[in-house]
Amino acid sequence: MDRSSVVRRRNRSWPEPLKREIVAATFEPGASVAAVARRYEVNANQLFGWRKLFGPPGLDTMTPALVPVVLTGEVASLAPPISPDDRIEIELASGYRIRVGGDAATATLRRVLDVLERR
Questions:
Q1: Most buried residue, 12, 59, 74, 97, by CB count within 10 Å?
Q2: What are phi and psi of 88, to 5 degrees?
Q3: Is the pTM of this model over 0.70?
Q4: Would residue 24 count as lying in a domain?
């Protein structure tokens, strides 16, 4: 069998200064490891290993950091309160119109809409 046309894969040897340069590029604002890996033609998993070796001290890329949270006072609701007097009108493609008050139960409204859509 002729093996002259078979391309053998060979492990590349990366000089340490180049590794450090590539790792530094991953810490630039807005940079992603995947994009940097593609730019330098490096496997992203290899790059994560280099980040552990050559990244900032104390950096553990696999463990997320926990940040303390302090709640103060009550959280304001994003939606304004709904009054029973508030009304909306829903017009379906089938021509049906429904007027719904603010106090309508969501499950009931869903059942009514399902029935009307099947007609």
A1: 59
A2: -130, 155
A3: no
A4: yes
Question: What is the 3-state composition of the chain as percent helix, strand, coil, each rounded to the nearest 5?
Answer: 35, 10, 55
Give the tokens for residue 42.
């490096």
* 109: containing domain: 87-118
Residue 113 CB-half CA count within 13 A: 14
Q: Give the span between the Cα atoms of 4 and 116, in whole angstroms.
A: 71
| 51 CB-contact burial (10 Å; exposed 0-12 / middle 13-18 / buried 19+) | buried
Total count of residues recorded for the chain: 119
How many domains are there within the chain?
2
* Burial environment of residue 83 by CB neighbours within 10 A (0 to 12, 13 to 18, 19 or more): exposed
Chain segment 58-91, per-residue pLDDT in tens = 665 555 667 888 878 776 667 777 776 788 888 8
